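Consider the subject:
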Amino acid sequence: MRVPEGGGARHDPGVSDAAETNQQGTERLSGTERRERLRERRIRASRGARRTLGRAVAQRTLRERLALLEHAAEVYDLDEPADMYGDGVVESLEAKVAGLLGKEAAAFFPTGTMAQQVTLRCWAGRTQNPAVALHALAHPEVHERNALSQVSGLRPVRVTSEPRQPTADEVRGLDEPFGALMLELPLRDAGFVLPSFEELTEVTEAAREREAVVHFDGARLWESTVHFGRPLDEIADLADSVYVSFYKSLDGYGGAAVAGPQTLVDELKAWRHRYGGTVFQQFPTALSALVGLERELPRLPDYVRHARVIAEALREGFAAAGLPWARVHPEVPHTNEFQLWLPHDADTVAEAAVRHAEETGTLLFSRPWAAPGPGLAVTEIDVRAAGLEWSAANVRTAVAEFAERLAEQVSA
């Protein structure tokens, strides 16, 4: 059912009283304890909300997650034998991914961190150069505890630290040789930003001028087709290998795949075994990935287009609330995910966001708020199926309700 225009009414007074009690109790906690309590309240508010702009997979219950497999029979014959060490349904998933990306073959991995380490290690062996050129904000540099160097003996070389995609001139001008160029598409920590297709083509050509291979960190590549104006296989054709995730966009239980030439994939599977990634049975994860490819992948373009409606409504809502300095980044989202920046202390904003959800039953911000600097707060907006039910008017009303509570928190 489509959400009606306008804002949501407040819950009964008992809920508001509970939120006030939570707030008073939180003020007496340490910073770490306060943030943990706030996280718990955000999850409870998410589960109890009558309407949500988005709800992270991590906030869903086991029952909700298991329900995904109710659709498994639609994507795979459940009377087939269960997989063992990467055969059966896992091989079917690999073939599906290879076809979607226009590559000869693909290898399934239990995690993206393992998938990319193994891939870049194999390329280093073939190019005889362990240097991997990548962005300073790329996932391996920020979120993997130096795994490329500590585990796989690779040497990351930063092309740029600017909050944008690397340019062809930067790749050409890198002052040392490198065996592989890794491009994260989109670059999450810069705001889920993508280059234009022409810029991406130029960057890959620049890498090959340097006699390097090109690897796409495409954890969220699935939702890039609208921005690029190209199908997945045409985008993937620019790279020698492409990594994709099954849970970030497709709501799967986990897992990843790397697609590329058959000879590379054969080598990936050998190293997958050595890294401990050839798990005895992985049918729940593989089935959930196939369900995601069947059900979520076709919806992603709609999510991206509606994210642009949501982003504009957020700007309009904050301007109408007297907060024109709120910033949506990118101004026109490149994917169905983007950033929202506010010039306030992150803990203050987070408290206001949770109070808004607790008191109105409307969850506008499902993800945590980070503090990129003093007096600044940033969160990520993720538009999925639930977000399609929100009109621009719904967003503007929810922003007005949130802004009231933010003003109260700031003046408290």
